[in-house]
């Protein structure tokens, strides 16, 4: 983050700004460090507040280097009792790989989500999460699954290449058999950021968003 640039308000704070006055961000430029498809609400609020926005995602998502573990899990899909998701990115990566006729392919397999946003991502694919963690974290998701899984149940956990949670380890307490193939990996995007760097240097960007630790 350059000198003089502040962290942009989250959507709730943006809404408060709109209540305080008309177009409070007029003539202001905001750098949004998330992909447009993942920041629609924030972009809409910023535009309503009069801001010009520049999208420069700091992270892009790619298929795993070795897709074979995930492909094997998909072949064996009906051997699992549950699929657990801890991010919307994992949801989209998994179901894109799974292909068409998702309800037919899912069969009896139930879906668990770490929180409402992840459950919403599941619904985007025409499916429903049967379990949504009460507290929106891996510990809460593991506790919820521990109450509905039987010892020896097989659970599929499509995950990022690097994860900060320990869902698989937490589920071992309940003697659940967890398979956790990599569904996607995150890396810096390959796009040219020269123009944005030039604007930052010249003070043409007044706010910078940071909506995650990765950003």
From TrEMBL:
Highest taxon in the source lineage: Bacteria
SUPFAM superfamilies named in the record: HemD-like
Functional pathway: Porphyrin-containing compound metabolism; protoporphyrin-IX biosynthesis; coproporphyrinogen-III from 5-aminolevulinate: step 3/4
Keywords: Lyase, Porphyrin biosynthesis
Family matches, as Pfam families: HEM4
Tetrapyrrole biosynthesis uroporphyrinogen III synthase domain boundaries: 42-215
InterPro entries: 4pyrrol_syn_uPrphyn_synt_sf (IPR036108), 4pyrrol_synth_uPrphyn_synth (IPR003754), UROS/Hem4 (IPR039793)
Catalytic activity annotation: hydroxymethylbilane = uroporphyrinogen III + H2O
CDD domains per the UniProt record, alphabetical: HemD
GO BP annotations listed: protoporphyrinogen IX biosynthetic process; uroporphyrinogen III biosynthetic process
Coiled-coil segments: none
UniProt GO MF annotations: uroporphyrinogen-III synthase activity
EC number, as in UniProt: 4.2.1.75
Enzyme class: lyase
Function: Catalyzes cyclization of the linear tetrapyrrole, hydroxymethylbilane, to the macrocyclic uroporphyrinogen III.
Family, similarity comment: Belongs to the uroporphyrinogen-III synthase family.
Protein name from the UniProt record: Uroporphyrinogen-III synthase
